[in-house]
Amino acid sequence: MFESIFKRGVLSNSTTTQTPDLTVDVHAHLLPQLDDGPVDIEQSIEIIKEMYQIGYRKIIVTPHVMTGYYNNAYEDILQSLHILRSVLKRRNIAMELEAAAEYYLEDELFRLIERKEVLTFGGNRKYLLFEASFVTKASYILEAALRIKQAGYTPVLAHPERYVNLNDIEAINRLAYNGVLFQINIGSLTGYYSKQAQELAELLINRKLVAFLGSDCHSLTQLESIKQAFKLKIFKEATKLDILNNTLLENKSTVYA
Fold first, then answer.
1. Where would you tag: which of 12, 31, 80, 237 has the fewest CB atoms within 10 A of its CB?
2. DSSP per residue over the chain, as a string?
3. Residue ranges of the chain whose pLDDT lies below 50
4. CATH architecture of 8-256
5. Which sequence spans correspond to the domains of the chain?
6. Burial of 52 (0-12, 13-18, 19+ CB in 10 A)
């Protein structure tokens, strides 16, 4: 689909056995019983232990916030974070946890912004992770991102490679030019979601437009695709870009404003 835009030979998908240079995850659904992630805290702990084994040292947990489906108030998210942190401490699991959210692009998001009830990450940089319907027009995403910026936040579009209307370089460049940061899902590099998502993820890497790499992990099964992606040369190329994940390692504060 994107053959006319980039050359596959630049970033080959041959494998490598090197350990990935990635210690911070910015997108994970690991707080139990808040969304479509773990059903209990034991599942959360099991995934976190496995993520520690593959090199992560900090995880920003980002439960869905979507009216009618995941009505997660920021107080509930922070309470769940506190409980999970306490259990990790008791079990001597040295994973740093921070909480933000993955906000669905809807009117309620802007009401939360007006009330200063959104969770962000990155301290004063106020990165706000958001998603939309996978068939949302690029123009609507741009309009929403500009409103997020005007409110004082840095818009981070979750898994842009999965949006069917972001299938040309012009739409992508327009978003990037207007300050939208892109967080691609690591699993997309294996074709976990679709061939189209894989190709667009490669395009974003090739164009050096990736700000964050995220696991978007919900389960141990999904984590397997992420571990497979770590073996790919294109993943190693991605970690050599100016991605921002590891700049968050020493930033331990959750910001809601």
1. 12
2. --TTT--GGGS---B--PPP---EEEEE--STTSSSS-SSHHHHHHHHHHHHHTT--EEEE--EEBTTTB---HHHHHHHHHHHHHHHHHTT---EEEE--EEESSHHHHHHHHTT--EEBSGGG-EEEEE--TT--HHHHHHHHHHHHHTT-EEEEE-GGG-TT--SHHHHHHHHHTT-EEEEEGGGGGTSS-HHHHHHHHHHHHTT-EEEEE--B-SHHHHHHHHHHTTBHHHHHHHTS--SGGGGTT----EE-
3. 1-19, 251-257
4. Alpha-Beta Barrel (3.20)
5. 8-256
6. middle
In which residue are the tokens 């978007």 written? 216
> Any idea which residue has 């309009």 for tokens?
143
| Dihedral-angle region of residue 33 (phi above 0 means left; psi in -120 to 50 means alpha; beta otherwise) | left
The pLDDT value given to residue 2: 40
Span 32-86, pLDDT tens digits: 999 999 999 999 999 999 999 999 999 999 999 999 999 999 999 999 999 999 9
Contacts of 63 (CB under 8 A, 6+ apart): 29, 31, 34, 35, 37, 70, 72, 77, 80, 99, 101, 102
- In the chain, what percentage of residues exceed pLDDT 90? 87
**Residue 87 tokens, joined:** 């259990």
Asked if 114 and 96 touch (Cβ cutoff 8 Å), the reply is no
Nearest alpha carbon to residue 67 among 39, 107, 38: 107
